[in-house]
Task: inverse folding
């Protein structure tokens, strides 16, 4: 089938998502909860695009292409929604995300340099009981990538999302911590985390050492 992406005709196979079509044609759409290794989730609402005839922007990671669909990656309403989402996420964090993280990269792509909102901020809450992984709850944005990586990639089912809204977070086991969960230390959660909320413990120690030395 054929779709139009930013005015260019693109041939796609049935079952292709808008995001896959855009990426396959050399285009780009920012996203936070998407990981090509995982099933699309559509939680973050950052990968929004405009579609001719649709009542509003659509999430490109979960919307399937249809014959003749006209897609815009520069739709102003879609970009405004994406920027607002990223601003809200940043407003809840106690510190700016590391420049290497997916969240920082997405913020830069969308030209989000500061947030307009002030309010509740997550308090520091570290779980360092795991021998290899550190879990910094205050940096968690509840995108679900770690939970899905644990389930879909490793099949360990060690993580789950608890709470709702601002209070939502990821918990290991029955909220008993990584060390007591069914975690097999594969590192899939840390690899996919867009904020370094879950990070390999040695990497965290190295970062602390560098900051302490003024590097």
Result:
């Amino acid at each position: 089938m054929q779709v139009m992406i930013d005015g260019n005709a693109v041939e796609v196979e049935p079952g292709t998502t808008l995001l896959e079509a855009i990426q396959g044609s050399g285009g780009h759409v920012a996203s936070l909860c998407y990981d090509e290794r995982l099933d699309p989730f559509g939680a973050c609402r950052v990968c929004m695009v405009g579609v001719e005839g649709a009542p509003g922007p659509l999430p490109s990671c979960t919307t399937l292409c249809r014959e003749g669909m006209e897609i815009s990656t520069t739709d102003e309403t879609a970009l405004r929604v994406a920027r607002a989402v990223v601003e809200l996420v940043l407003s809840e964090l106690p510190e700016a995300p590391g420049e290497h993280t997916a969240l920082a990269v997405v913020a830069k792509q969308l030209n989000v340099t500061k947030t307009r909102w002030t309010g509740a901020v997550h308090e520091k809450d570290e779980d360092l009981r795991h021998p290899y992984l550190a879990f910094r709850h205050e940096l968690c944005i509840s995108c679900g990538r770690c939970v899905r990586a644990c389930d879909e990639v490793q099949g360990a089912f060690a993580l789950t999302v608890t709470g709702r809204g601002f209070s939502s977070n990821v918990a290991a086991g029955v909220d008993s911590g990584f060390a007591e969960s069914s975690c097999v230390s594969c590192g899939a959660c840390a690899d996919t985390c867009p904020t370094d909320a879950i990070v390999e413990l040695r990497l965290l120690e190295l970062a602390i050492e560098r900051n302490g030395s003024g590097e």
About this structure: Strands lie at 2-5, 8-11, 48-51, 58-59, 70-72, 126-127, 133-136, 159-162, 169-172, 198-200. The chain has two domains: 1-119, 126-213. The CA atoms of residues 38 and 152 lie 7 Å apart. The two ends are 53 Å apart (CA to CA).
